[in-house]
Structures are given as structure tokens and as C-alpha cells.
Write a sequence for this structure.
């Protein structure tokens, strides 16, 4: 399962150390064994409940209302440039050394 | 001590000019300073600014002001506020200042209530011990060697130690009721949608609820009256009219029926908790209620269903913390949160979602059916709040199974969406509080508050105050 833990950490974008992999592997295995109790239930004819609110299709008029200014929206970011957020690069710069 | 009085008593004294808001706020500040080692606040407002606000409010006091006018209160650090940092108990949100304020906080500020500070919590609501926090564990005022419970542990301690008149917590699987119970105060988990979640840092969106912690059911009712109602900014908030919670709470409960699910009264948990809850049920019978035994077999599956759903939803909600728009990096999640995120990521991943996540949603339907059947036979369901009193520090930390089982009696309510409250019902031999849980059908907050009020009129557990040795 250690490969699976690494895969999960990658999917969840969680940096974890080698030492942690073994610990998480053991803990997640115990939890999933406990969760397996749900398998005892016959759920073939049962529909899912995704939410318990009674509200449906809550809509509002399509009009522009007050929202955050650009300054407010950017103020908590550690890196901004010309009024934009700076995000980590996902492609390589061919000209980079 | 002023802060030992009820909200109605304090409001009365203010209007008779026997006390001032400045005195009340000063006492609140002093109690916070005296109890600083309990570690229940992450941020506190500046003392001089608070006293200035208090004096201004004193000058503007008139009889027609809201009951909460001038009342010092606190909120869990899971509510965003424009003027104080919001961390959700995590380094991931270090230095984060929200550009807007949560609806629940704004509604309280609009009454003239005075926000003192923001409370420590298990980060992201992940935990029942308030040890999973980057701001140090919260100590139980009844014995600082013990946990406060969680995740709204800081809120519960601030009320129990009489630092504020009430606090706002957040309950996804027991996070208001669990610490309320362990600290000997009252806490209300509302029907899903009764109070707006706008501005609440999300843990699990289909389970998260906003509610008050206070010294009594009477005070809970006053706060609920203020914060309940639909909000255009939260599409899941209910459009049902808000009941009157503050009047007629002493109407009595004679002839009502309490259901006792046999799954909640088995002998598989702390015997002192069990005997205390059974004694509380006997006391409620003396108030004129009758009991009926219930069989709710799906209760045995509540924890697996809860953890499957809550982990899935939290893996999705916490994906937004990428360190780009706000916050620091994902390497700063504590192990309890990292584990829940990975668990949820697995349950939602291709090939497993049908078997794990969707089957949990199907099992949820069966649990809802169990509750619907139960409420055909009774008006209330009684239960313990936690399977044991507060534990010593370290017993739950990084112990995922024990952390999960702490939610045994509370998480089931969030899955179904019904309201439930915890009230003090006694103490262990070592003088640690034990809480009784009273559960109602959807939107029956008024009914459960009425029963809790009747129980508190007949008992004095809620009046016991911890002696804080500082």
C-alpha cells in the first residue's frame, strides 16, 4: 500500500516524508477496515442522499452586485504581479539555463 | 462575578444602570488574562479599543436596544472577520485577514454585542480534543491536565471559565456538543440550514452547522433567535420562517415522549457516563415525560458513514488551500488533517467513488429513515454526548480510531441534519463534567430548548463553575 499512499499524497498535493508513508499506511489501513462495515448493508435498492437541505435551485437575479476590489482580492497573496496572482509554473521555459 | 449571570439578568442590570458595559467588558478582559494558560483564544482584541467601544456603547444605551447589546462574546477561529486574523487553527492560514465578515458574526455585531476575540480549535474542525491545532492545546478549566474536547474547545472553555457571555462554535460531527459536554456548559447544534454558513471555513459542506455555546438553554435561545434565518449568501440556508425561541420556553413538557435507542444505551462505553445519562432520563420523567425504547440499527453504522462523507467533502474543500491566493503551503497541514484529506481523496478517486463514497450516501438514506421512524414514536431522543468524559492530554492525539469513536453519539445527528443540544447532567467522581444530549426532529429547536430549559430549571449542574487555579 505504500505506493498507494504516495499516489494519494500526490493526488491530494500533500508533500509527505518517507518516514510518514509507513505511519499513514498503517493508519489508513485500520480506518478502511473499520469503514468496511458499510459493506454489510444491502444498498442495491437505496438511493443516495447528498444533502439534507430542503432548498432547491436557489437562484438570484443576474445582476452585478458589489464584490471585492482587486486590492482586497490580492491582499492575502504572497506573490502578485501587475494586479495578478503569481502561480507556480506548470511548463518548462526552454530558454532557462 | 458579572459573567456568571444570564444574558437576561445582565441586560436587566444594564438597563437599570446598576452596571455598565465597560464594567462587563473589563471583567471579560480580566477573566481572559487570568485564564491565559487555558489557551482558549488564538487572537484577542486590543484592550484599550475594547474599553473605548464599551464606553461608547454605554453612552448610546437605551431600553429598546437588543438583549445582546453590550454583551462580550467570542467566536471560533473558523469564522472569517475583517478586523482580526482567521486561522481555522492552522498555520496554513497564518497571517490571513479576510476581506469580508461571516454572516453570523455580522448579525451579532449588528445587535451591539462586543467581539472580544477568536477561539482556539482543532484545525479545520478535524478532531475532538483540541490538540490538533498549531496554537497549542486548549486546557479543560475543570482540570488543566485534561482536554477541553473539540473541535470548538476554545469556545467551550471561554464560556465555562466565564470569560464571555456566549460563543459561536461550528459543529460538523459533534464539534459544539462534545466540548460543551466536556467543559460543563450548554451547546446547540442546529438543523442543517437554520443558520447561515456564509463566512464559515468549510470542513464538510453537507454536515457543517453554525451554533451557540452558552451557560444555559435560556441563553442559547437568545443567541439562536439572533443568528437564525435565511441568507442570500448561503444557498443551503433554509427559507422556513424562524420560530420564536425566547418566549414560552417554560411552557412545560408534560406528556411528551423521549425515545431511548437501545444502540445508545448499550454497555460498551464509560459506565459513569452511562449511569449519569440514565439518571438524567429519570429526572426528565419526573418532569412529566414518558420514555419509549427505540431500535435504530443504522446507528451502528454512523461512524463509518460519517468518516466516509466528512473525509470526502473535506478533501474537496481543503483543496483550495494552494498557497497562491492566500495562506501558506500544503506542507503545513497537521497529520490528522493530512490523513482525512488522503482518506477522502481515496474515497472519491476513480474506480472507488461508487463503492465507497456513494455507498456511504446510500447508507445515509437508511439512517435518515431510522430517524424518521423514531420521530413517529417520540418527540425527543436522549443520548450521551461523548462516550467518555474528557481524556488526559495525548490519549487521542495521532490516534485516528479513538478520535473517530469520540464522535460515536454526535456524528449521527449531522448525517441526518436534525438539531441536537448538549446540557450538563453531572460529574464523574473526579469532578469532570458529563453532558446529556437531547435530539429533536428537523427544525424542532424550540422543542429541544424547551426541554433543556425545563431540565435546567429542575437541576443545578449548569450552574457549577470551575474553580480556576491560576
Amino acid at each position: 500500500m505504500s505506493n498507494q499512499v504516495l499516489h494519494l499524497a500526490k493526488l491530494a498535493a500533500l508533500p509527505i516524508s518517507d518516514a510518514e508513508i509507513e505511519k499513514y499506511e498503517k493508519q489508513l489501513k485500520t480506518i478502511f477496515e473499520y469503514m468496511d462495515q458499510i459493506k454489510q448493508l444491502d444498498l442495491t435498492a437505496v438511493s443516495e442522499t447528498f444533502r439534507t437541505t430542503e432548498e432547491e435551485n436557489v437562484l438570484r437575479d443576474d445582476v452585478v452586485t458589489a464584490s471585492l476590489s482587486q486590492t482586497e482580492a490580492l491582499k492575502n497573496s504572497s506573490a502578485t504581479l501587475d494586479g495578478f496572482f503569481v502561480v507556480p509554473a506548470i511548463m518548462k521555459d526552454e530558454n532557462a539555463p | 462575578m458579572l459573567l456568571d449571570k444570564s444574558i437576561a439578568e445582565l441586560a436587566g442590570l444594564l438597563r437599570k444602570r446598576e452596571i455598565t458595559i465597560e464594567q462587563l467588558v473589563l471583567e471579560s478582559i480580566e477573566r481572559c488574562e487570568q485564564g491565559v494558560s487555558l489557551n482558549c483564544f488564538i487572537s484577542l482584541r486590543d484592550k484599550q479599543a475594547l474599553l473605548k467601544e464599551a464606553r461608547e456603547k454605554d453612552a448610546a444605551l437605551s431600553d429598546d436596544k437588543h438583549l445582546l447589546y453590550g454583551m462580550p462574546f467570542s467566536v471560533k477561529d473558523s469564522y472569517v472577520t475583517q478586523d482580526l486574523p482567521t486561522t481555522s487553527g492552522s498555520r496554513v492560514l497564518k497571517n490571513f485577514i479576510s476581506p469580508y465578515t461571516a454572516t453570523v458574526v455580522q448579525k451579532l455585531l449588528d445587535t451591539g454585542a462586543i467581539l472580544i476575540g477568536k477561539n482556539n480549535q482543532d484545525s479545520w474542525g478535524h478532531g475532538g480534543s483540541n490538540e490538533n491545532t498549531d496554537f497549542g492545546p486548549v486546557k479543560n478549566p475543570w482540570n488543566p491536565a485534561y482536554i477541553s474536547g473539540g473541535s470548538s474547545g476554545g469556545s467551550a472553555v471561554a464560556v465555562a471559565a466565564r470569560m464571555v457571555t456566549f460563543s459561536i462554535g461550528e459543529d460538523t460531527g459533534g464539534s459544539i456538543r462534545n466540548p460543551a459536554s466536556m467543559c460543563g456548559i450548554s451547546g446547540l447544534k442546529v438543523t442543517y440550514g437554520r443558520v447561515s454558513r456564509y463566512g464559515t471555513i468549510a470542513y464538510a459542506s453537507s454536515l457543517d452547522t453554525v451554533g451557540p455555546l452558552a451557560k444555559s438553554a435560556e441563553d442559547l435561545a437568545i443567541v439562536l433567535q439572533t443568528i437564525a434565518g435565511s441568507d442570500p449568501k448561503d444557498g443551503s440556508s433554509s427559507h422556513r420562517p424562524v420560530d420564536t425561541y425566547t418566549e414560552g420556553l417554560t411552557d412545560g413538557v408534560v406528556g411528551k415522549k423521549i425515545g431511548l435507542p437501545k444502540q445508545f444505551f448499550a454497555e460498551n462505553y464509560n459506565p459513569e457516563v452511562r449511569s449519569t445519562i440514565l439518571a438524567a432520563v429519570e429526572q426528565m420523567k419526573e418532569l412529566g415525560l414518558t420514555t419509549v425504547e427505540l431500535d435504530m440499527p443504522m446507528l451502528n453504522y454512523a461512524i463509518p458513514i460519517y468518516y466516509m462523507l466528512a473525509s470526502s467533502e473535506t478533501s474537496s474543500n481543503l483543496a483550495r488551500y494552494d498557497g497562491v491566493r492566500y495562506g501558506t503551503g500544503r506542507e503545513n497541514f497537521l497529520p490528522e488533517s493530512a490523513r482525512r484529506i488522503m482518506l477522502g481523496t481515496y474515497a472519491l478517486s476513480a474506480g472507488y467513488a461508487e463503492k465507497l463514497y456513494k455507498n456511504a450516501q446510500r447508507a445515509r438514506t437508511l439512517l435518515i429513515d431510522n430517524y424518521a421512524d423514531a420521530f413517529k414514536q417520540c418527540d425527543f431522543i436522549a443520548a450521551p454526548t461523548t462516550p467518555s468524559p474528557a481524556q488526559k492530554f495525548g490519549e487521542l492525539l495521532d490516534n485516528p480510531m479513538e478520535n473517530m469513536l469520540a464522535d460515536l453519539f454526535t456524528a449521527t445527528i449531522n448525517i441526518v441534519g436534525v438539531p441536537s443540544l448538549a446540557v450538563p447532567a453531572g460529574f464523574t467522581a473526579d469532578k469532570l463534567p458529563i453532558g446529556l444530549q437531547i435530539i429533536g426532529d428537523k427544525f424542532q429547536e424550540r422543542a429541544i430548548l424547551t426541554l433543556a430549559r425545563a431540565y435546567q430549571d429542575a437541576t443545578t449542574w449548569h450552574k457549577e463553575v470551575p474553580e480556576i487555579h491560576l
Notes: The domain at 1-42 of chain A is CATH 1.10.20 (Histone, subunit A).
